[in-house]
Design a protein that fits this description.
The complex is a heterodimer. Chain A contains 11 helices and 9 strands. By secondary structure, chain A is α+β, with helices and mostly antiparallel strands. Chain B is α+β, with helices and mostly antiparallel strands.
């Protein structure tokens, strides 16, 4: 009997070696461990074994059973491994370089730049306000210290409307309303579309975007303005920016400045963007004119402040290296699609 | 405006000062400089020579063979100028000299050797005259460098006129010199002027000034003087070259004189031929009339235009331009010299109306100082005498001074100055700056009392802020250190419309692959016609450059269609959007209403119209669901208002019973005009209205512990039954265990179902208190079936 068990084991080991599929394994299981399997038969028939050897035979048969179970499990695992291997080897090789349909559209460069600036300003505690596009003559001119027939009106060719109003020529048109709405102290920016009645060329558009800001508080000085503008522009260009102020004339500020920045693209060494001038005229600004404060209901003896204008169209052009202003209003998706989302 | 450094040197000693650095300082302290031109650098070695003989050149009608004496040698020169003559002294460019940057060498013309050339004024760069060669005065010394006779060398810089808008005092060299003296810390020399008191005993000229309005006279001052015995016809080289370098043409001595004084002092002057105008009346036109200005143009003048008249005959448009008939000519020997001050607004109106922006008008409209008129006459006579020593002044200084500007006194204290600038300056620096700029100041401790000079007091300087500017700019803004201020920062409330706008844009670009565009706020009339788009009348621009495109948009859709029209030429599919303003002008009221609207345009040759409509719907639903957590109702528009909208497939977008816009297939007629192969859909959505709507709160519902049950119903309904109608019935059935229902499928089959369709809906039911029993489940099913059946919606049994 013991011999039979040993033989059986040899047989199983030999058969296991021949196994190719899980079905073969199953056959072996049925043959030896099934209801009528040879090993099971032995165990079933233990009662027929002489009593003296019964225990020993029983133990051996049991050990064989456990061994076969282990062999089967090992074999199954081995086969499964092989199967995966085959599956992997036979799998389709995907060509990752095949272009897939691009469902990403694009935001307008002005939107991207405007959002970026608004985020910077709101982070600095500025309120964002929307102005109108159709404005009264009073808000666009008189309220910012440009009376009728003032020569400064020459600087801005105006689209006049049949109801006597106009398409706003500057975001400053919102200054008066905002001062009256919030009073002092005040920190606000007001981006928007502006219009000038001019012929189009690479650097002139009749429709463009500005962003204007005002900051009114007690004891605001020229030195504060320089600090603020330097901080702001460094944030916008994401590097330390050198600024310089020159006298500039804008009726709603006194003193008025032209703010130049040291070209951030070449650090002032001279390049295409700064036209080798190393400084870029970027932003008109100044201390808000006492008359403008007064018209806005703010006492210029108690409060002072500064205002500044940023050409959004200009900044977008600089950011994306666009050299023709007309591209922005072209509606040409071939151009705009290049801008992506951020 | 062009500024001549030579001219400035008449008034400020610039010895030892680097001119380019000076101009940079001027930019940083006074006004923007647009460019610098260095004249005379390209001219070298040109000398005085004399023509000894003039001979014909064989085979040439034009050329002459000259023998020229340079004082050192006699040379043969071939010259084409018509005005060559024996004995004439000329500007001679010898071999080896430089003219206009070109080296002059020996040349052969018509077979003849030419050793240099005689120059015209144009070749020397001192005028545009190329009609003949320069003939110098007889006393010119042979061999002398031409630059000692004609002041060719000069540096001219151009100041941006716009940046001088508020500075009437800087519209002449003397004012600029005052700035430069202040910037450099040098002394401004007083003007050399004629003492007019000398002539007080002479006869006064007759000047009449009509005054309509005491408070706002159109002529503030009229000064005049008569000068006779002017015999010289041409101005000196110095005057002519300066005028030319500063952008004017030399005409004759008297015309040049008026221009010269204007460029020097900023005061426009006019010289009448005294034979024609010996007295003046300044008055407005009583009716519209015609008038011929000295440029020979007949112009239509409006009633009310201010005119200078001789007796009753207009001889000049005040402050703008003189008349042809009274102009000084080459034969004029006596003149009636006008130096006047007119109302800035009146001059500006007239000049704009006539589109005649003369140098005089440009200055008057800046509001000139009326005190200047007398100074200008005194200076005029002094300079004229230098040009022509034989002149005789034959009248007293004649002056009608109607209105003076109020004297301005400003009180300021040092603390205020320091606070405003953000830097402590010394009292000495403050007073020096103000004194150099000719303010009269009195200092009492920290208080300064400032008297504003008349030439700054017309409009420019009137309050403390103006004084701050003077001090700060001369100190140099570069020398003010940036300093922070402890401003309070408080959180900023978010603007819901702005947030919605950005969120919508980002969603459309990222999820729906659309491109944002920017367009114009007016309709494109030509394109409207081409595409057959009809727009309703709206607010119009009255003065646009493109006359046709004057109507502001009331709707966004046409703009979207323009963009599609443009882009479909390059691509099979185009999906664009813009958030922008539309304008609603009802003509009864004055103000135009302004809306913020999202426009979407979708065009595709790959998707059907239906697919595009559903994509648009998905976009609108997403915007509203994500940002406001609200559901949208769509309704068929019974009668479309715009001709680009599809009469059947146009749907209004309704949220909270508010109409927010529409989704529409584009009318086939217009679609065909754009692209017949493409499906086109447009959307308009009122972002402003939607933005203001409050977001619906999200209320969380616990998930039931008990298993839900689902069952499907396939309903056979008529083809035009809307899904929403089925929904209405489901809702009306009041199923107490209903958790949700979803559309699974809509099946249409023309053959099998004819005018019907099958709509399959999956119901999910469940309870929070128990697992539904069979009876409960069947009960729910029966309930909804009964309701559906009652509305003619049956299941396939």
């Amino acid at each position: 009997m013991e011999e039979k068990i040993t033989l059986l084991k040899e047989k199983v080991v030999a058969k296991m070696k021949e196994v190719r599929t899980t079905a073969d394994v199953e056959n072996i299981r049925v043959e030896y461990l099934g209801k009528k399997g040879e090993v099971i038969e032995i165990l079933k028939n233990l009662k027929n074994v002489e009593a003296s050897k019964r225990k020993e035979v029983g133990e051996k048969a049991n050990i064989l059973r456990v061994e076969i179970v282990k062999m089967i499990e090992d074999k199954k695992l081995e086969l499964k491994e092989k199967e995966y291997e085959e599956q992997i080897n036979n799998s389709e090789k995907i060509d990752i370089t095949v272009p897939v349909q691009d469902k990403i559209g694009s935001l307008h460069p002005i939107t991207i730049v405007q959002k970026e600036l608004e985020d910077i300003f709101t982070g600095m505690g500025f309120t964002v306000e929307d102005g109108n596009e159709v404005e009264t003559e009073y808000n666009n001119f008189e309220a910012v210290n440009v009376p009728k027939y003032h020569p400064a009106r020459d600087m801005q060719d105006t689209f006049w409307l049949e109801n006597g109003e106009l398409l706003k020529t500057q975001t400053s048109a919102a200054q008066n309303k905002i001062m009256l709405k919030y009073g002092a102290p005040l920190k606000a920016i007001f981006p928007g579309r502006c219009f000038r009645n001019e012929a189009l060329d690479a650097s002139h558009e009749n429709t463009f975007f500005q962003m204007e800001g005002m900051m009114i508080d007690k004891n605001v000085s020229i030195s504060n303005l320089i600090y603020f503008m330097k901080t702001l522009l460094s944030e916008i260009f994401k590097k330390d920016i050198e600024v310089r102020l020159r006298p500039g004339y804008f009726p709603f500020v006194e003193p008025g400045f032209e703010l130049d920045i040291k070209c951030p693209y070449c650090d002032g060494k001279g390049c295409k963007v700064c036209k080798n001038g190393s400084w870029i005229e970027l932003c008109p600004c100044g201390m808000i004119h006492p008359n403008v404060l007064k018209m806005g209901g703010i006492d210029p003896e108690e409060y002072s402040g500064f205002a500044f204008g940023l050409g959004l169209s200009r900044l977008a052009m600089m950011k994306y290296n666009i050299n023709d202003l007309r591209a922005l209003n072209s509606c040409d998706v071939r151009i705009l699609k290049q801008m992506n989302i951020k | 405006m062009y500024i001549s450094i030579n001219w400035i040197k008449d008034f400020v000693d610039l010895d030892g000062i680097d001119v380019e650095k000076l101009i940079y300082k001027f930019t940083m302290s006074t006004a923007e400089v647009e460019g610098i031109t260095k004249y005379g650098q390209n001219i070298n070695g040109v000398i005085v020579a004399q023509i000894l003989s003039v001979d014909e050149v064989e085979n040439s009608k034009k050329l002459h063979k000259l023998m020229v004496d340079t004082g050192k040698e006699k040379l043969q020169v071939i010259c084409g100028a018509p005005n060559v003559k024996v004995g004439a002294k000329v500007a001679f460019a010898q071999v080896g000299s430089t003219v206009d940057g070109q080296k002059i060498g020996q040349a052969t013309l018509a077979g003849q050797v030419s050793n240099g050339m005689c120059l015209s004024e144009k070749e020397l760069g001192v005028s545009d005259d190329h009609s003949g060669i320069i003939i110098l005065d007889d006393d010119a010394k042979l061999g002398e460098d031409i630059k000692n006779i004609i002041p060719v060398d000069d540096v001219i810089y151009e100041v941006d006129n716009k940046s001088l808008t508020n500075r009437p005092d800087l519209w002449g060299h003397y004012g600029i010199a005052r700035e430069i003296a202040t910037i450099t810390g040098r002394k401004l020399k007083p003007l050399d002027i004629e003492d007019l008191k000398m002539y007080n005993e002479l006869e006064k000229l007759s000047i009449g000034v009509e005054v309509d309005d005491d408070n706002n006279p159109l002529c503030l001052r009229y000064s005049a003087m008569r000068v006779e015995n002017v015999t010289k016809k041409q101005a000196s080289w110095k005057m002519r070259v300066r005028l030319y370098y500063c952008g004017m043409r030399s005409i004759n001595l008297l015309a040049d004189m008026t221009n010269y004084i204007m460029l020097e002092l900023g005061q426009p002057m006019h010289a009448f031929d005294e034979k024609i105008v010996n007295s003046v009346n300044v008055r407005t036109l009583k009716e519209d009339s015609k008038f011929t200005t000295l440029d020979g143009q007949e112009r239509n003048l409006d009633k009310g235009t201010l005119m200078i008249c001789h007796e009753d005959e207009p001889v000049a448009i005040a402050g703008v331009m003189g008349g042809l008939d009274s102009e000084i000519t080459d034969s004029t020997t006596s003149l009636f010299l006008e130096s006047a001050n007119f109302d800035a607004v009146a001059i500006r109106k007239t000049a704009s109306k006539l589109d005649l922006r003369t140098d005089a008008a440009a200055r008057y409209e800046k509001t000139l100082d009326p005190e200047l008129t007398e100074l200008a006459i005194a200076r005029f006579i002094k300079v004229l005498r230098e040009e022509d020593s034989g002149i005789k002044v034959t009248s007293a200084f004649s002056d009608v001074y109607i209105s003076k500007y109020p004297h301005i006194t400003i009180h300021i204290d040092k603390d205020y100055i320091d606070r405003s600038i953000g830097k402590e300056l010394s009292m000495d620096e403050i007073t020096t700056t103000l004194t150099n700029l000719e303010y009269d100041i009195k200092v009492d401790g920290k208080n300064i009392t400032i008297e504003v000079p008349t030439f700054r007091a017309t409009k420019d300087v009137s309050q403390k802020a103006d004084i701050i500017e003077e001090i700060a700019r001369i100190h140099g803004y570069d020398n003010i250190e940036p300093k922070t201020n402890l401003w309070k920062i408080s959180p900023v409330p978010k603007d819901p419309v702005r947030e919605l706008e950005y969120a919508s844009k980002e969603l459309l670009a990222t999820k729906y692959g659309m491109s944002e565009i920017h367009s114009y706020v007016w309709y494109n009339t030509e394109l409207n016609q081409e595409l057959g788009i009809k727009v309703r009348d709206n607010l119009k621009i009255t003065n646009g450059i493109v006359k046709l495109d004057n109507t502001l948009r009331r709707e966004m859709a046409p703009t979207m269609l323009y963009a599609i029209n443009k882009n479909l030429k390059y691509m099979p599919e185009c999906k664009v959007f813009e958030v922008a303003r539309t304008f609603d002008y009802e003509f009864d009221g004055k103000d135009a209403k302004e809306y913020k609207v999202l426009g979407i345009g979708m065009a595709s040759t790959k998707q059907s119209e239906k697919e595009l409509v559903y994509e648009a719907k998905s976009a609108v639903d997403s915007i509203i669901k994500i940002n406001k957590n609200m559901d949208v109702r769509y309704e068929n528009i019974e009668k479309v208002e715009n001709n680009w909208m599809h009469p059947v497939n146009s749907f209004s977008i309704i949220v909270n019973n508010t109409n927010l816009g529409y989704i529409s297939i584009v009318h086939p007629k217009i679609k065909d005009a754009i692209n017949s192969k493409s499906a086109i859909v447009v959307v308009e959505l009122r972002i402003d209205l939607l933005g203001e709507m409050a977001k619906t709160d999200i209320s969380y519902k616990e998930i039931s512990k008990y298993q839900n049950v689902t069952f499907d119903l396939s309903l056979i309904v008529s083809k035009d039954t809307k899904y929403s109608e089925i929904e209405d019935v489901i809702k009306s059935a009041n199923m107490e265990y209903l958790i949700s229902y979803n559309l699974i499928d809509i099946y249409e089959n023309a053959e099998k179902l004819k005018d019907k369709k099958t709509v399959t809906i999956r119901f999910t039911i469940g309870s929070y208190t128990n697992t539904l029993t069979k009876e409960q489940i069947d009960g729910q099913r029966e309930k909804v079936l009964a309701a559906l059946k009652a509305n003619n919606m049956n299941i396939n049994e």
